[in-house]
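Lest this sound abstract, we think one record worth quoting, the chain in one-letter code, the fold tokenised, each line plainly labelled:

>
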Amino acid sequence: MRDRPLSRRTVLAGMTAVGSTVALAAAQAAAAESGDDPSWKITRGRIQQSVVHWCFKPMSVADLARHAAALGMKSVELVPPADWPTLKQHGLTCAIASSHGFVRGWNDPANWDFCTEKITAAIEAAAEFGCPTVITFSGMRGSLPAGAEGDQIGKRNFVEGIKRVLPLAEKKRVTLALEMLNSRVDVEMKGHPGYQCDSIEWAAEVCDRVGSDRLKILFDIYHVQIMQGDVIVRLKKFKDYIAHIHTAGNPGRNELDDTQEIHYPGIMRAIADIGYTGFVGQEFIPTWKDPVAALRHAARQCDV
């Protein structure tokens, strides 16, 4: 069928529809924010909640820790060891520690020395402080062949590389959590095009090959929804592999409100029902005028 030129009326109608959608989303967010109860805090506690600091910058670690503690959260995560004493002052821990970043990972032997240095330091610091988990990544596909061949090479390299640090993790009783990231979206660091571990199955196969309880998966609900969907099905299927969980609304990686497609109360009930006792980290980027109200709303959605 031949494309027909768009009429002025059609274009204006489309612009009006887009404007209405944006206005509706803004109105919904404002309504949710205006209904906020500043005195609310976590009461049920079936889900151990944490919050990721980078999403709330430029808020300081100290300020975020204060707000998190007031909400009844137990952690501010992915902050450097220098900030951990601040967390402790507020009765918080760091649920998961940073390490080598997602670009240079174990799937490329050229990165092994770099990853070994970063993760060794993170394990030592985590063990001393009482942080249970250290994040790790596959790395980017880079020059690996496309498709199944590249996947197998990347998996072999990952398994051989991470064996450099697993004995220390086992000795210190610190779990390494391999994060699955989406490789589709590329907007303001909300996606990671070229990232190799972009399915839960990829991560689970690596864990099986390694065969250590000290290598598990960081199950990021936002990334799983983008790449695969069936979040609750995968939570149940891979429950024994999960060391840590992250949240965010999709699309946009923003609040866990009714402008996005993931039903977090249902997912959190499923997480509790599978017997998961680890941390769930709020890793959304707030757009509300009051980011603390946004965090409180997210915590409420997850306190099932």
Q: What stands out?
A: The chain is about 45% helix and 10% strand.
